[in-house]
Each structure stands twice: as C-alpha cells, then as structure tokens.
C-alpha cells in the first residue's frame, strides 16, 4: 500500500487532486483508516491515476473522464478521439471569431453602409411523405431551417426549435460586437433545447439559423441542413455537414461522389437534442450588398445538383421567385424528402437617389 503522499509523488498528482478524484468517484482509495481517515492506495491504481491525469491535461471534464474510465480500452480510445476532435473544432471556431474581431476592430471608423434583408421562405412535404418534418422561417432578423426527426411529434420539433429563436426578432438592439452577437444566439439555442424537450425527451432536429445585426450575420448550425452564400457569382457552402459520410470525406476515406450514393449518407453524427450532447457550430459573417443567402434542408441539397442551385440563385428574380423555382426543381427531381428553403438578399437601405 502507498500513502496518499507517496501515491501523489508516484503519479505527479497533488493530494488535493486525489481527494477531488475520490469525491467524484474517479479514484477511490484502496483503504481508508477508520481512526485517522488517512487514505492509502494500491500500486495497481497507479495506471488509472496516470490516465485520469492525462485526460485532465486534455481538458476533459470529470464527468466525462468517469465515463471513459469505465469503458473497455478500444471504446475508451474512441471516446478520447471524439473529445479531441470536439476540442479542435471549438478551437477552430474561436480562431475564426478572433479573426472576425480583428477585422471588426481594424475597420472601426470606416464609412458604413446601411444594409438590410429581403427574404422569403417555404417548406413543403415531398409527394411520397405523409407528414412534413421540415420547417422554414424568414423574419426581419432571423432566417432558419430545421428538420425534426424521431418518433411522435417529429413534425413539431423543428418548428419548436426555431420558435425558441424568434424572440431575437424583437430585441431593441443587437450589438455589432461579434462575441456579443454569438452570445445572444447561444443563449437562444439553450432555449431551443428546452423547447424540443417539452415535445419528447428523445427529440432530434437539425438546425441552421442566421441572425442579422447591422451588417453581420451570426450563424448557428448543427446537422445536415445547410447554408450557402452566393457572392460575385460564386456559390459556396458556409456550413459543414455533421454526417457520417462527411466524416469519411474529411478523413480521406470517401470521395464526394461516393458519399452521394452511400447507403448511410443521411446518418447524422450531431444534431440538436434535449440533452445537449452536441453543440452547434457558431460563427459570424460580414455581409455585403448584393449577397444572396440560401438556407435549406437536405430535401433540396441532396436532390438538386450544386451547379443547378448556383444557376437558379445567380439568375434574376426576387427571393420569393427564387424560392418557388428551387421548390420546382426539387419536385422535378422527384422530391423524395420534404423540402424547406429560405432565400435572403442583402440590400442597401440608403441607395442614393437618381440625379
């Protein structure tokens, strides 16, 4: 047996840390003296203590460490890999935010142009569907699409998630600071988790939302709903699919063409749930006059080819006309799923009058 001091030196842990791990049930002493309360550890516990210390250095929460330590080695390795992938994603998101803040602060004092949105939305059931689980919303400040799934009430889950974000429309002011804008959106997403929990504890929905403030759009995204930006004639996807096949593409194990016909192409690895097991990607985007945004569910993006989407979006027409044309194209390809579409144009609000 090793005393707590000897065990601490052997594992390079403090006695305070060992007491904390005991409190949380991570590393119980092998023996506790009934009279003095002094703790003793077995040599066989050294390996587990070092594992816990390593996981703490990764920044893993104690509750998650408890789960990892209870897993067999192979499953534990997979859990650590998933944790680190999440850390890398969050670090990348913070890096993007830092870049946006640098641009924002460097741009202070420049002449500003008042911008606004003109938008339209529609959600329709596919011809082979009995219910419509897709939801689309376009307001003065908020744009969103969602695709609810799993069990009873699935047709209400996406709508409930977006409804929790709608109070953002009535805020008197939204600061232009990127971190404030993302904070407001993150708080609303917590409300969305609670809202879908009231429908079902097993509720699942994808969600892609853009929140407008001045000349910026805060983006929240989770699942396989998508957001695209058409700028200067070029169409780019500004969200990253949280799907099994996209993971395989990212790892170089699958091509985009192979993913399009993969039997598990609709399998999600992240979605909005009551338990908050995964958290949406958050970012801020600067808007320019002439930009056109498309938000859609996979009922459009997996059916209509990207080149055809670009052609429709780059063509003439107001947002309502573009939404109608995109719906028509989805139905022309058979619309095997429900379809939700939002199109928004960024326009100048202070156009000079003609001389």
UniProtKB/TrEMBL annotation:
GO terms for molecular function: DNA binding; DNA-binding transcription factor activity. CDD domains: HTH_BmrR, PP2Cc. Residues 1-71 form the HTH merR-type domain. Gene3D superfamilies: 1.10.1660.10, PPM-type phosphatase domain (3.60.40.10). Keywords: DNA-binding. Coiled coil: none annotated. This is Protein phosphatase. It comes from Actinoplanes teichomyceticus. The lineage of its organism: Bacteria, Bacillati, Actinomycetota, Actinomycetes, Micromonosporales.
């Amino acid at each position: 047996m090793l005393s707590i001091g000897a065990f601490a030196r052997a594992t390079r842990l403090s006695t305070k840390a060992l007491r904390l791990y005991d409190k949380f049930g991570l590393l119980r002493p092998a023996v506790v003296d009934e009279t003095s309360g002094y703790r003793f550890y077995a040599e066989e516990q050294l390996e587990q203590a070092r594992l816990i210390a390593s996981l703490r250095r990764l920044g893993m929460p104690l509750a998650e460490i408890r789960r990892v330590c209870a897993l067999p080695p192979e499953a534990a390795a997979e859990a650590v890999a998933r944790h680190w992938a999440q850390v890398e994603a969050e670090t990348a998101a913070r890096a993007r935010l830092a870049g946006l803040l640098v641009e924002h602060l460097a741009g202070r004092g420049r002449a500003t142009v008042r911008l606004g949105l003109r938008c339209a939305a529609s959600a329709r059931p596919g011809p082979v569907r009995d219910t419509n689980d897709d939801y689309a919303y376009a307001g003065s400040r908020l744009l969103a699409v969602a695709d609810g799934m799993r069990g009873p009430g699935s047709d209400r889950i996406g709508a409930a998630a977006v409804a929790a974000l709608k109070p953002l429309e009535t805020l008197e002011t939204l600061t232009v600071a990127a971190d404030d804008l993302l904070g407001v959106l993150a708080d609303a997403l917590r409300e969305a988790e609670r809202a879908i929990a009231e429908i079902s504890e097993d509720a699942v929905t994808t969600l892609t939302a853009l929140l407008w403030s001045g000349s910026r759009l805060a983006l929240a995204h989770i699942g396989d709903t998508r957001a695209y930006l058409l700028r200067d004639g070029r169409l780019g996807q500004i969200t990253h699919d949280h799907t099994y096949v996209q993971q395989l593409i990212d790892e170089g194990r699958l091509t985009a063409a192979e993913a399009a016909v993969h039997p598990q192409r609709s399998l999600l690895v992240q979605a909005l749930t009551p338990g908050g097991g995964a958290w949406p990607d958050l970012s801020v985007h600067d808007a320019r006059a002439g930009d056109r945004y498309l938000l859609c569910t996979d009922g459009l993006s997996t059916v209509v080819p990207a080149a055809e989407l670009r052609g429709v979006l780059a063509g003439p027409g107001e947002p309502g006309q573009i939404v109608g044309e995109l719906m028509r194209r989805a139905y022309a390809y058979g619309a095997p799923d429900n379809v939700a579409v939002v199109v928004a144009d960024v326009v100048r609000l202070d156009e000079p009058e003609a001389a």
